[in-house]
Amino acid sequence: MLVDVHAHLDVEEFDKDREEVLRKCRIVVVNAGVDLKSSMASLNMARSYPNVVPAVGLHPEFVEKADLELEKVLELIKEAPIISEVGLDFYWIKEEKLRKKQVEMLGRFMEEGERQRKALVIHSRGGLRDILEMVTSYKVKFVIHAYEGSIKDAIRVHELGGFVSIPPIIVRDKVRRTVAEKIPLESILTETDSPFMGPDRYRNEPCNVAITLMELAKLRKQDVREIEEKIQDNFKGIMEPYFSLSGANLTNK
Ligand SMILES: [Zn+2]
Predict the structure, then answer these.
(1) Do 3 and 209 form a contact (C-beta atoms < 8 A)?
(2) 181 a known binding residue?
(3) Would you say 158 is a known binding-site residue?
(4) Alpha-carbon distance 89 to 223, whole Å?
(5) Which residues make up the environment of ion ligand 1, defined by Cβ < 5 Å?
(6) What's the 60 CA to ligand 1 centre distance in angstroms?
(7) In a domain, 135, yes or no
(8) Ligand 1 mean position to 248 CA, how many Å?
(9) Is 59 annotated as contributing to ligand binding?
(10) Which backbone phi and psi does 249 adopt, to 5 degrees?
(11) Per the annotation, does 4 bind a ligand?
(12) Is pTM beyond 0.90 here?
């Protein structure tokens, strides 16, 4: 079974064919909420689609919504097995005060992740060192989504017991290919960030995870099925103890 550990299928780009998109291949999709509204949409989607795992979070780019929404989003974590999309974005957010607030927000999510034993799928743009510093203070499982850092930092993620997740854009991204080739398989997950980050300029879709798997197999000179199975195991590792995977369906334990 394919694993898409980070996607946004609640957005309008999928209004016409969401069901079809989710049925095209055997896949489990973690749908990330970026604010209160989409976190609720994420929980709703999971009620309609058995292969969707809901994640709730507040995207660091929306740090200005924190005063209104943060507490409510934190409250929703008890209904979701994964916390996302959360993180640090120092690329779009330059103002020192807001960056500080992002760090505070991420700290709250990590605290909750530790307390409820839920993994965080983390957005990192320009803030990776800070994130890696922070995860050492909390007992949390974590994934750096759409990892775009160096191999050196990827090894650090691995040493901390975390994961880097790789989007299909890898086919046209040399740095990501180096990381995908060198980092131990036990620290790799796959994602699409649909509808963004596609292998081409069209709408990205969860089943494009297959493209990433093919590329991984080629780079690592390893059997594609073996990689697929290992990634499925990695995913089970971050989901435990909330769900078990059986066939194409996710069932509550
Ligand atoms: Zn995202």
Answers:
(1) yes
(2) no
(3) no
(4) 36
(5) 85, 193
(6) 11
(7) yes
(8) 23
(9) no
(10) -105, 150
(11) no
(12) yes
CA of 44 to the centre of ligand 1 (A): 18
CATH number of the domain at 101, please: 3.20.20.140
Report CA(253)–ligand 1 centroid distance (Å): 27
* Close Cβ partners of 40 (under 8 Å, ≥ 6 residues apart): 33, 76
The three-state secondary structure class of 25 is coil
CA of 144 relative to ligand 1 center, distance in Å: 11
The length of the chain is: 253
Pairing of strands 249-252, 243-246: antiparallel
Question: Whole domain around residue 214: which residue ranges?
Answer: 2-248
| 123 appears as a binding residue in the annotation | yes
Q: Look up residue 212 and give its two tokens.
A: 């990433």
Distance (angstroms) between ligand 1 centre and the Cα of 234 equals: 20
Single-letter amino acid, residue 228: E
List b or e across 28-43, with b for residues whose CB sees 16 or more CB atoms inside 10 angstroms. bbbbbbbbbebbbbbb
Question: Is 170 part of any domain?
Answer: yes
Count of beta carbons in the 10 Å neighbourhood of residue 139: 12
Residue 53 to residue 250: CA distance in whole angstroms:
8
Instruction: Report yes or no on 253 lying in a domain.
Output: no
Number of domains in the chain: 1
**Within-domain flag for 18:** yes
Q: For residue 124, which amino acid is it?
A: S
How many angstroms separate the most distant Cα atoms in the chain?
49
pLDDT tens for the chain, residues 1 to 253: 999 999 999 999 999 999 999 999 999 999 999 999 999 999 999 999 999 999 999 999 999 999 999 999 999 999 999 999 999 999 999 999 999 999 999 999 999 999 999 999 999 999 999 999 999 999 999 999 999 999 999 999 999 999 999 999 999 889 999 999 999 999 999 999 999 887 787 899 999 999 999 999 999 999 999 999 999 999 999 987 665 544 334 443 3
